Every structure is written in C-alpha cells, then in structure tokens.
C-alpha cells in the first residue's frame, strides 16, 4: 500500500523534472552552438529540442541527416534555405515530424500546439535565416 501511494508522487516529480529541463520557449535556452546563429531565438529553442537530435551533421539517424541538416542551414544559399523551409512547412502541416514511431517511444518529443504554430509561421516566411 505504501509503495503504491508513492507512485503518483514519483510521476509528478518526474514530470516537474522533465518540464524543468525542457523549456522550449525560453529565450536564452543554451542551444547547440552550431545551430544557425542567425535564426530567431524562439525558433532555435524549438528546433534544438524537437528536431536537431536527428537532423544535424553528426546525427546517427542517417536518413534524417540526409534529408535535413540544421548545421548546414545557415551557410546555405537563400534559394536552398527557402526550399528547406518549404519542406519543413510541408512535413509540419502533415504532422509527419517528429516521426510517429519516434513519438511512440518518446511522446514528450511531440511539438506543442504553440511550438507547431511558431515553427509553421517561421517556415512559411520568405526571409533568409528566417528572421
Ligand atoms: C527521431 C528522429 C527525428 C526527429 C526528432 C525529427 N526528424 Fe525530421 N526526419 C527524420 C527522418 C528519419 C527523416 C527521413 C524520412 C524519410 O525519408 O522517410 C526526416 C525527414 C525530414 C524532412 C524532409 C522531408 C522530405 O521529404 O524531404 C524534414 C523537412 C524534416 N524531417 C523536418 C523535421 C522537423 C522540422 C523536426 C522537428 C519538429 C524533425 N524533422 C524532427 C527523423 C527525425
């Protein structure tokens, strides 16, 4: 009985801890330094938390890396950046990213509605770097 009654407490503590470590919209979240320095801070924070793990130059996720490498984003020509943003908007609209299989194992990787809206807004914008 005693052990059981501790379970909800453990769950709440776990949840609090998780939220404390993954605040995606904090302005100065310590993002990976290589991640597009000119991108707006709120976009970087979301990408860092929810996309970067699979989509960076050193990622072990070969498929993900091949399709999108955030480390190469900043240096890319505007036309390339626009194409990438278009792809991003596309997968977000379809709800394809992060991949469903991954979310089954890691539901906390899902974009919140606010994050989704912010990323969509950014990916639909036409400016280089996305300011
Ligand atoms: C768990 C790993 C993982 C995470 C997290 C993830 N992706 Fe992906 N992503 C992939 C893989 C794998 C592919 C390749 C899918 C394929 O080819 O079928 C991909 C493909 C893409 C593509 C290319 C689609 C195309 O058809 O060209 C875009 C754009 C993309 N992801 C954006 C994102 C964004 C934005 C996020 C964060 C919201 C994100 N991804 C999070 C693994 C991931």
From TrEMBL:
Q: Name one Pfam family in it.
A: Haem_bd
Entry keywords, A to Z: Heme, Iron, Metal-binding
Q: Which PROSITE patterns match?
A: CYTC (PS51007)
**Which residue ranges does the record assign to the Cytochrome c domain?**
38-127
Q: Which SUPFAM superfamilies match?
A: Cytochrome c (SSF46626)
Q: Which InterPro entries does UniProt cross-reference here?
A: Cyt_c-like_dom, Cyt_c-like_dom_sf, Haem-bd
- Protein name as annotated: Heme-binding domain-containing protein
Q: Which organism is it from?
A: Algoriphagus aestuariicola
């Amino acid at each position: 009985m005693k052990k059981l009654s501790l379970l909800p407490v453990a769950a709440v503590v776990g949840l609090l801890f998780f939220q404390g470590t993954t605040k995606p919209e904090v302005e100065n979240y310590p993002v990976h330094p290589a991640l597009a320095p000119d991108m707006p801070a709120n976009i970087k924070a979301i990408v860092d938390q929810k996309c970067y793990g699979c989509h960076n130059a050193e990622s072990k996720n070969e498929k993900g890396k091949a399709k999108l490498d955030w480390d190469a984003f900043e240096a890319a020509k505007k036309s390339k950046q626009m194409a990438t943003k278009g792809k991003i908007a596309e997968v977000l609209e379809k709800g394809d990213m992060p991949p469903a299989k991954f979310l089954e194992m890691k539901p906390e990787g899902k974009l919140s509605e606010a994050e989704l809206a912010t990323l969509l807004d950014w990916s639909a914008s036409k400016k280089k770097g996305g300011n």
